[in-house]
Every structure is written in C-alpha cells, then in structure tokens.
Specification:
The chain is α+β, with helices and mostly antiparallel strands. The protein is built from two helices and five strands. A hairpin with a 4-residue loop joins strand 2 and strand 3.
C-alpha cells in the first residue's frame, strides 16, 4: 500500500565518492595521438606516484570504449559511469585524467 502523504521517492543520482583517491589531471605536450600513447603517459605517472601498480579500469572517449567492457550498461541512468564505479569499488587510489576526460585511468597500488 502506498502512503499518499509520504509517497516513495527516487534517490537523486550522486557524484562519485573520490575520498582516498588522488586525482591527477594531465595535459601532455605533445597531445597523445591515441589511447596507446595516453596509456604510456598515464602508466609512467602511476609508476612515479605508486611504484608498482595495477590498472583497474579506463575510458577512451575518442572510441567511446571502456574497460571493463560493458561496465556502463548497468549505469545507464546514473551519474557514475561504469568504469568509474568499477575502479572506485575495487580500491583505486589514483585517477589519471588526460585532456579533460579524453582518457581516464584508475590505478591500485600493489604493496609488496
């Protein structure tokens, strides 16, 4: 039975919670020609900041491609893309954003 005075409401989509995540925005010169070049830049930055690392998820806006593949299918009507959600909920500690979201990478440090 629905309460007519206090009807159920839908929650408003929230922005991702980046607490505990270092966010690095890069604008390399020269600009990466493609995903492979952007990944080289991002991996070098991750190694500098984390030492050993694992790449958890990423997004390539040029090709509208993400990893893990199809992660955003479950996030169609949400404010958080699937690759972001996956990275954050799998322990990412570093987000590298190249060219204002053109390429985005989430990394986890590997403690040895």
């Amino acid at each position: 039975m629905t309460d007519r005075i206090n009807p159920p409401t839908c929650s408003i989509p929230k922005e991702p919670d980046y607490s505990g995540v270092t966010i690095v925005e890069l604008h390399p010169d020269p600009v990466p020609a493609d995903y492979q070049q952007a990944m080289q830049v991002a991996n070098a930055e991750a190694e500098k900041r984390l030492g050993e690392y694992m790449l958890l998820s990423w997004y390539d806006r040029d090709r509208d491609f993400e990893s893990p593949q199809h992660a955003s299918e479950c996030h169609v009507n949400t404010a958080v893309p699937g690759y972001v959600d996956y990275g954050l909920y799998h322990g990412a500690k570093l987000k590298i954003d190249i060219e204002d979201g053109r390429f985005v990478f989430f990394y986890l440090p590997i403690d040895m």
